[in-house]
Amino acid sequence: MSAKVLLVGGTQFIGHHIASALLSAGHRVALLHRGQHKNDLGPKAEEILCDWHDEKEMRERLKKRSFDAVVHCICFTESEAALSYKLFADRCAHFIYFSTAAVYLMNPEVHPPYREEDALREPAQSYLGSEKFSYGVNKRKTDLFFLLRHSRNGFPSTILRLPVVVGPRDYTGRLAAYLHRVRDGKPVLMPDGGHNAWGFLAAEDIGQAVLGVMKNKKTHGKVYNLAQREAISLRSLVLALGRLTGNHPCLVDIPSIHLLKTRLGIGFSPLSSSHHVLLDCSAAQRDFGFTPTPFLSWLKGFTDAFKKDGGRDLFRSTRSLEVEVAQEFLKERFPY
Ligand SMILES: NC(=O)c1ccc[n+]([C@@H]2O[C@H](COP(=O)([O-])OP(=O)(O)OC[C@H]3O[C@@H](n4cnc5c(N)ncnc54)[C@H](OP(=O)(O)O)[C@@H]3O)[C@@H](O)[C@H]2O)c1
C-alpha cells in the first residue's frame, strides 16, 4: 500500500536516492527543504519550502498534516533531536533518521567490525572536547535521544547508521579525488601504505533499507548498521580504480608522520584514516533482509559514470604539492 512520506532534506545526495526509491516503489513523497538545492525529481515529489529549524513556520507549513513516515536526513545534534521530537512525534507513525559510523571511533576499547551496541560505550574523555570528533560526539547524543524517547515514550523511531556513502551526486568528492589522481598519471601518495580498511555503502542501498524498515514495527527503537560486505583497504581501492579505468597508478607509500612535517599534511587524502571503519550488518540482514550492492559492482558503476562526466576534483588545490612531496620523498629514500 502506498505510504505518505515526509523527507526532511532530500534534494542533494542521500536524500535524493531515498526519494527516488520511495517514488519508484509507489509511495507519495514530500521534500521539505529551503530551496537552495534544486529538486531534480520534478512534480512527482511535492515540495515544502521551509527551514526546518523554524518551529513556528514548520507548524504553519505542516498544519494538520500527518505522515506514515518522516525520514530525517539532516539531524545532527541533541537539540535538533529534541526539536524533531517536538515537531514530528504527533505527526508520524514512524520516524527514520541517519546516524554515522563516526560514533564508533571514540573509544579505543571497541574494535571493528563494529556492532550497533558498541556506540553505547562512553567515548574516552580525550575525544569529548575535540573539534575533530564533534560530529561523532553530537551524532551519538542524537542517537541516544531517539533511543531514550522510544524506551520512555514509545516514540517509533529507527536509526540507520552509515559509513562513507558512495554513488552518483556525492558532493563530498572523496572517492572521485582518487580517480582524478589515478587518471592524471602522476604519483599517488599512500599515507602509511593506504592499509586502512573501509566498508563503504552504495547510496542506492539506503533507499532499499528505508523501504525495508518502513512499516516494519520490529525495527522501532532499533539501530541498524548498513554497509557493503567487503573490507577494502584504501590501497586496494586505488588499485581497483586503476584496473577498471585501464590505468597503472604509481603508488608512493609515505609515513603520515613524515607528511605531517610537510606543508601538505594528510587532509589531501580524504579516505586515509587511523581506523578500520567496518560495520557488522547482521541485524539489518536479519530484520529486513538488507542485501548490499557488492563492492566491484558499485565501483564499476562509479567509474563508468566518471568516464562520461568526471566533474571537478574537489581536492585539486593540493595536487601539485602532492607530486612535489612524492618526488622529494623518493629522492631522499632512493638517492641514486
Ligand atoms: N555522505 C556520507 O558519507 C554520510 C556518512 C554517514 C552519515 N551521513 C548522514 O547523511 C545525512 C546527510 O545526507 P545528505 O546531505 O546527502 O542529505 P540530502 O537530504 O540529500 O541533502 C541535504 C538536504 O537538506 C536540505 N537542508 C539543509 N539545511 C536545511 C534546513 N535548515 N532546513 C530544511 N532543509 C535543509 C538541503 O536542501 P536546501 O539546501 O534546499 O535546504 C538538502 O535537500 C546526514 O544525516 C549525515 O550525518 C552521510
Question: What do you see in this structure?
Answer:
The protein is an alpha/beta fold and 336 residues long. The protein is built from 12 helices and 13 strands. It has helices at residues 14-24, 55-62, 78-88, 125-128, 134-153, 174-184, 203-213, 234-245, 256-259, 282-288, 295-308, 319-333, and strands spanning 4-8, 28-33, 46-49, 69-72, 95-100, 157-162, 165-166, 188-191, 197-198, 201-202, 222-225, 232-233, 251-254. The strands form 4 sheets. It has a 7-stranded parallel beta sheet with strand order 3-2-1-4-5-6-11, sandwiched between helices. It has a two-stranded parallel ribbon with strand order 7-10. A two-stranded parallel sheet has the order 8-13. Strand 1, helix 1 (14-24) and strand 2 (28-33) form a beta-alpha-beta unit. The mean pLDDT is 96. Residues 9-16, 33-37, 51-53, 73-74, 98, 100, 162, 164-165, 172 line the site of NADP nicotinamide-adenine-dinucleotide phosphate (NAP).
